[in-house]
Structure formats: C-alpha cells, structure tokens
Design brief:
The complex is a heterodimer of chains A (305) and B (505).
Chain A lengths: L1 H28 L4 H4 L6 H10 L6 H13 L13 H36 L4 H15 L2 H15 L12 H30 L2 H8 L4 H29 L3 H7 L4 H10 L3 H29 L7
Helix pairs in contact in A: 1-13, 5-6, 5-8, 5-10, 5-13, 6-8, 7-8, 7-11, 8-10, 10-13, 11-12, 12-13
Chain B lengths: L1 H21 L5 E6 L15 H7 L8 E3 L6 E3 L2 E8 L2 E6 L13 H11 L7 H6 L5 E7 L2 E6 L6 H5 L24 E7 L3 E6 L12 E6 L3 H9 L5 E2 L13 E14 L9 H9 L16 E2 L22 H13 L8 E5 L7 H14 L4 E5 L2 H8 L11 E8 L6 H7 L12 H12 L2 H19 L2 E13 L3 E2 L16 E2 L1
Parallel strand pairs in B: 1-10, 1-11, 14-15, 14-16
Antiparallel strand pairs in B: 2-3, 4-5, 5-7, 6-7, 8-9, 9-10, 11-17, 12-16, 12-17, 13-17, 18-19
Helix pairs in contact in B: 7-8, 12-13
Classes of the chains: A mainly alpha (305), B alpha+beta (505).
Chain lengths: 305, 505
C-alpha cells in the first residue's frame, strides 16, 4: 500500500508541475493586469510604475523563475487585487467550498442510493418511472437557472429562506439544494442501472431461493456490488464541486474558492489563480486516493499494486 | 409523518429567523452593490467608482464639494478659498473639526493629506488623473490657513480639491490604507473584502448628524438578486439593477448617470480618414429608435461627449439627425472620389459595458452596412478593449478601426473630458489638430466666460469639422430603494452615495 501511495504521489507531482507551468504561462498570455487595475486614462508613467512594483515589467521567464523560488518557500505571493497573501485568501475560502460540496454530495448520495435502489426493484413500475423523470430533470437543469428560480420561489415568494449571503444556517439551504440537484439526478440514474444488473445476477437469485429477506438482498448484498460505478461518478462530481461550485457561489454571494477563482481570473490576479489551482489540485489528489481506498474496501478482489 | 412535521417546523423557525432579520426597525441600513469593495485606499476613490461610493463624504471628506445641480463649488472642510496669484490658491479651513482617530484637522493635516497623494509607493490613481505633470507645494500660513502653490496655473483648483479626500495625518504613506480615516460622519468599523463592509456613525462629527446609524455594504453580481434583496427586505438600496427589473415605480428609479457613449473613429486609415465617410457613419444612426427599445426610456441621444451640466457643454450643438439617404449619398460620393469604402472596418466592443450591448452593437453595424460600408463587430474582453483605447496606439493595424466606449465626467468641467480625449497630448486622443489644441489650451488656462466659450467652440469644431466619433447616448442607470428609506439618485451616484442624503420615511 505504501508503494501505491508513493507512486500516486510521484504521478500527481508530475501532473502538478505540468499544471503549474500551464497555468502560469496561459494566465500571462491574457494581457497586462495594469489595463484592469488602472483607469483607462492612466499616464504611461503610472502604468510603468505599476508594472515595476508588481514585477510585470520583467520577461516572463524571469517572472516564472521568481515564482518557482518563492514557491519552494511555500510563498505564493500577494494578491494584486486584495493586497493580501494569496495562500491566506485561498485557505480562507476553501472551507466554505468544502462544507458546501460535502453537504450537497452526502445528501445527494443518500437520496440517490435510496431512490435508485427502490426504482431498480421494479423496473418500469410507477416508482421507477417517477425516479427516472425526476432524476433526469434534476441532472439536466442548469445550475444558474435553478439558483435564480429557487431564489425567486423560496426566498422572494415564500420567504422561507434568505436570498443569499452567509451568516446563519438558513443561508446554506438554497446553495446546498441547488448544488445537490445535479449529482443526485446523475447518481440516481447510475444506482438504478447498476442495481438492475446486480439484482439479476446469480448470487441474488441464490439468496432469494434461500429465503433471504428482500431488504437484505437489496441494501446489503446487491447494493454493495453496485456501488463501484456510483463511487466513480460521485468522485467525478465531487472533483467538480471542490474545483469550486462557481455558479452557486457567485449567485449566492458565497465566499468560496469558486468565487475567489472567478474574481481572480477576471482581474488577472495571477498569484491567487496559481495558488488556488495548486491547492485545489492537491485536494483532488487526496480525494482520488480516498476513492481508491473505497474501491478496495468495497471489492476485496481489487488490490493495491 | 412526525418527521415531516419536524422538518416543516424547522423550516418555519428558519423563516421566522430570517424574517426577523429582514424586519430590522433600527436606524441601520444595508446597501447591495454589484462589485466587491476589494480596495479602500482613499487616493483611488475618484478613479475607482465603488471605493468612492462607500468612502466619499461618508468617511473621507473633501475641502470643497460640488453642487450636483450645476457643478458649482461649495464649502465643506474649507470655508473659503481664493486665487492670490496665478500659481497660488489660499484656503481657509473650517474650525472645530477632528479626524476620526482624534488627530486635529488643521493646515498641517491638510498638507499631510495632499502630500500623501504624491507618495511614490501608493501609485495613487487620483493624483495621476488630477495632477499629471503637475507638482504642488502646500504651505501652512497659520493653523487654519494654507497656500497651495502649483508649478503651472490651476484655474480649476476648487474643482480639483472637490475630488481629493482629506485623510488623517496618521494614514500610512508607504502602503495602501486598509483602514481609511477622515473627518466624515461615518467610521469604517469592519471590512471583509470577500463579503461586506460596515460604516458606523462617528460621534465626534463636526456637522449635522445624519439619520442613518450604521450602513452595511454587501455585494452580489447578479442584478436580479440585488433587486430581490430589496423586495424581500434584506437590503434597503440596490445599486445598478437591470432595466428589466425596474418595474415598480414606487421603489425603482432611473437616473442619468455621468456616462456618455460613443464610437471612436481612428482616422488614420482609409476609408475612415475621409470626412464624408465619418459624416455618413453619424447620419446612418437612428438614435431615437434605440430609446425605450434596446436602451431604456431615460437615455438621451448625445451631441457631445459630456452632459449638459458640465461647464463647456455647447447647447447650440444638435444631435446628428437620422438621414440614411444622405449617408448613402456621401458614401457613394467618397467611392467616386477613389476612397475604398468597401474596405472592411472593425468595430471593437465588449459585453460588460452596458445592458443589451450586443443588440446595440448589432443594430449599429447593420445601420452602417445598409449605407454601403463594410463594418464588422469584434467582441473583445475588458483588458483588450482598454488596450485599444489608450496610447501607444498600434501603428500597423491591419484594418481601419473603431471602438465603442463610454466616459463619465462628474467633475463639472469640460477640461476632464476634452484634454484627455481630444487634445493631441491626451492619453486617449487620436486627434492631432493644432487649431483644436490651441482652443483647448486657451480653455484650460482661462476662467469664467472665456473658459466656457473656448471649450464650447472646441466642441463645435470637433463635432462639425473633425468628426472623430459617432456620438451616441447619455446613459441611464437604475436603483431600487426599499420602503423604509428615501434617496434621490443623481448623476454623481455612480461614484458617490452620501449616507447623509438617505433618510427614513
């Protein structure tokens, strides 16, 4: 297992280096941030001073070398926009996104597994058709539309929850529900398909002939075997959320990593973009390792190599 | 069933909690803005609208303020001022004023505040805009009197001083301030650049106490959400709501902001170097047809690049009429004279600029194509658009170019528009006309009627002889004001929202 983890770390480090190079140079291809930070009628002297103070007057390779040197000291530099250390900004925003993502995903997994499993018990039955329609709809709805409509319905018309912002538990309800919809729909579809396969397999027929209770067959024997594709899809969805639930965070004014990255890209805040990408990539690496462990736990035939 | 009841009860509790929060009856208000207040450095507040919106005259006051009706200078921290020689202005300060940190407001404090604008480490944007190529020496005469001596004559000194915030002498000069301190009626008590900013009433304020006790500023990028926040009572004022959301005449108000839009013509290449083609570009636009359709009802077709309340505006200049036939004739005349009118022309635009900008651009392009010009739209992002607008301009453009742009002049004088956009030395000017330069220089160094007439004459020359642009509209913004408070926006509201002007009903 130790060898496996070391190998994963080496591969991830190689990917990370590629990512850093790509992000560093691509971001700088998009233009000089002085165009955004200074008024359009700024004098050439002010533009030159701005570039010099922020090291933007140096050749890009020199800038990259400086970045690498400071990175070795875990110094990601200062945000151009917020004039604070980039690492501090990213680490402050990250927990908000993690809470949003884990809450939405936990809820989505529970609902999808129960709904998908029950639907698979009677394919083409009423419950199955209902689960199909609802899950396909929720998987297809664009987040921005769902967010705006849910604000209109639950915050403006019904006044059950606040429209946006943070501060109380009530502020979390709409963002989590909006974020929950898409993965829940997708996962319900995967659980249903996977469970239909599992329920028609030989070991389930044997269990039924031995008189094992239906509930045990569905939720203990079949579900465990049907979980592998579910974990794969859930992991993929989770990566997307950790990358930043951008639309949800921007619309609801949630100070998470998605909103921070969105603003940083818009304002060419290079230090924050680089730091955000590296921290997010590390989190996704960690999550992928955990998913691999989950595979092994669920299926003893899978072994670390 | 019991579980369902428990969930419903929980939601009801949350609803009560949020409703209680919304129905706050205190003297506090919440203002929701479109963009984050990520910088609070007062020496950028004129050049960066959202900083000014929060700080100007709330936290940091100026020596002089402008009357929004006619842009005339009025006393604020200065009680009086006069020019004692061409280079020197004498300022008499108000007494019994304290900064919010306890420092005395006196001539030494004002000197420190003005000197701070020139501190190299701050890269002060307002200094760059107001004093480019200029140096100031501030000499205290006594505790409440000081002389401001400029290297070159500054007849606009009172207007310039209305745009400078006087900060406490304890404000750092080596880094941007994260806690600005001034003499205003409000103190900045908390600021989280990712979430909110809070101003609280300053007990030691020298003037009349405003009604608002505390103002919390939050930011949401989605205009419909900002409007909804006022509708449900989470906010009292929503800045810049979308025209389509401004549907309630009791709460939603349109106002002419200081922005004027135009298409700038780069006259360095054929066919745009031909004045007949530039006239045709103007005559081809039916400006009236945009009002109340693609643009909101309150926009005004513009005849020049400033509002009518700006000193130097020429009331005799009329908006270009719509005359497609004459435009077509001019294009054909140019073609007959050998001008390559079929050459592709690129117009740069960007969709962040105003509501329905895409529809506006497409209609403009279509109008020009109908008179026989080959104009194409190229959408670029903010950074690229900015780079096309200022010097140094690219010398080897592959095609003749135009660019859609907006400009705001809330400073009260034509100088702030015309020297930048039309004088040959202006950073945004692509005109080099010695006669025009002379007129503009005359305007910028004179005062009173002579000044106004010089700028008016320059405006006439620009729009009738040179025709370097397709002047479009004075633009409208919308604000939603909740039922608890009253506030009347004006053309300065984009860059300044004085909490003293907000009252409870």
């Amino acid at each position: 297992m130790n060898t496996y983890i070391v190998n994963r770390m080496v591969y991830s480090a190689i990917s990370m280096v590629g990512l850093i190079i790509l992000v560093f140079f691509l971001a700088r291809l998009t233009g000089n941030p002085a165009e955004l930070y200074l008024p359009v009628d700024a004098t050439p002297e002010l533009r030159a001073a701005f570039s010099q103070v922020n090291g933007l007057d140096q050749p890009v390779l020199v800038q990259f070398w400086r970045f690498l040197v400071t990175l070795l000291h875990l110094d990601f530099g200062n945000s151009l926009r917020l004039e604070r250390p980039a690492l501090q900004l990213v680490l402050t925003a990250f927990p908000t996104t993690l809470i949003l993502a884990f809450s939405a995903m936990a809820l989505a997994l529970v609902v999808a597994i129960v709904a998908g499993a029950l639907a698979a018990c009677a394919p083409n039955g009423i419950l199955d058709r209902l689960v199909n329609v609802v899950s396909l709809s929720s998987a297809s709805l664009p987040n921005f539309w769902l967010a705006l409509v849910s604000i209109l319905v639950f915050a403006v018309w019904l006044k059950w929850v606040p429209t946006s912002g943070t501060g109380t538990l009530a502020h979390w309800i709409l963002p989590i529900m909006v974020l929950f919809a898409r993965p829940c729909g997708l996962l319900a579809q995967v659980v249903r398909g996977s469970m239909i396969d599992a329920l028609s397999s030989a070991y389930v027929k044997t269990a039924r002939s031995k008189g094992v209770r239906s509930r045990s067959i569905i939720f203990v024997h079949a579900l465990r075997n049907a979980m592998l594709p579910v974990i794969t899809v859930a992991g993929d969805q989770m990566s997307g959320m950790i990358n930043g639930a951008v639309v949800v965070e921007v619309i609801f004014g949630f100070p998470g990593i998605g909103k921070l990255m969105m603003d940083s890209i818009q304002y060419r805040d290079f230090a924050v973009i680089q730091c955000g990408v590296i921290i997010t990539a590390a989190a996704i690496f960690l999550m992928n390792v955990l998913i691999d462990f989950a595979y092994v736990a669920l299926n003893p035939r899978i072994r670390f190599k | 069933m019991p579980k369902l009841k428990a969930i419903l009860a929980g939601m009801a509790l949350l609803a009560v909690a949020s409703a209680a929060q919304a129905q706050d009856k205190s003297k506090d208000i919440t203002i929701v803005m479109p963009s984050a207040v990520d910088v609070v450095e007062p020496c950028h507040m004129m050049s960066t609208g959202y900083i000014g919106l929060v700080l100007r005259q709330n936290v940091v006051e100026s020596l002089i303020k402008l009357d929004p009706k006619d842009s005339t200078p009025q006393p604020l921290l200065a009680e009086s001022w006069k020019q004692i020689d061409p280079l020197t202005w004498r300022i008499n300060l108000r007494k019994n004023v304290k900064f919010q940190d306890g420092a005395s407001f006196n001539s030494a404090g004002v000197k420190a505040a003005i000197d701070r604008l020139f501190a190299p480490a701050l890269l002060c944007r307002d200094k760059d805009r107001l004093f480019a190529g200029q140096t100031l020496e501030v000499k205290p005469v006594d505790d409440l009197t000081l002389d401001i001596i400029s290297k070159q004559p500054m007849p606009l000194m009172p207007l310039t001083l209305s745009q400078i915030g006087i900060t406490s002498p304890n404000t750092p000069t080596t880094e941007a301030s994260k806690h600005p301190v001034g003499t205003g009626p409000y103190v900045l008590t908390s600021w989280n650049p990712t979430q909110s900013l809070v101003l609280k009433q300053f007990d030691g304020y020298w003037g009349k106490k405003p009604q608002i006790q505390q103002a919390t500023y939050v930011w949401r990028s989605e205009p419909a959400l900002r409007a909804s926040m006022v509708a449900v009572g989470e906010a009292d004022i929503a800045m810049q709501i979308a025209p389509q959301d401004a549907v309630n005449p009791d709460t939603d108000f349109g106002y002419l902001n200081a922005d004027t839009s135009r298409v700038r013509i780069f006259m360095d290449q054929a066919p745009l170097n031909d004045v007949r083609v530039r006239k045709a570009l103007n005559l081809a636009i039916d400006r009236g047809s945009f009002v109340g359709t693609i643009l909101s009802k309150g926009v005004l077709p513009a005849s020049q690049y400033m509002m009518s309340n700006i000193n130097g505006y020429n009331p005799d200049l009329k908006v270009w009429p719509y005359d497609a036939e004459e435009a077509t004739r001019l294009v054909e005349e140019a073609r007959a004279a050998g001008v390559p009118v079929d050459k592709p022309i690129v117009m740069y635009g960007s969709d962040f600029m105003l509501a329905n900008s895409n529809e506006l651009f497409e209609t403009l392009i279509q109008s020009w194509q109908q008179i026989g010009l080959n104009v194409k739209l190229e959408m670029v992002d903010k950074i690229q658009l900015s780079a096309t607008r200022h010097k140094p301009f690219p010398t080897n453009r592959p095609t003749p170019t135009m660019v859609f742009e907006t400009h705001d002049n809330a400073a009260g004088d034509a100088f702030y528009t015309m020297m930048v956009y039309y004088h040959s030395s202006g950073d945004l000017s692509n005109i080099a006309d010695p006669a025009l330069d002379k007129l503009l220089e005359k305007g910028s160094t004179s005062t009173g009627d002579e000044r106004r007439k010089a700028f008016q004459e320059a405006n006439l020359k620009i729009q009738q002889d040179i025709i370097p642009d397709v002047m479009l509209f004075h633009l409208e913004s919308f604000i939603r004001v909740g039922p608890r408070v009253s506030y009347a926006p004006d053309f300065t509201t984009q860059g300044k929202l004085e909490l003293a002007d907000v009252t409870f009903k």
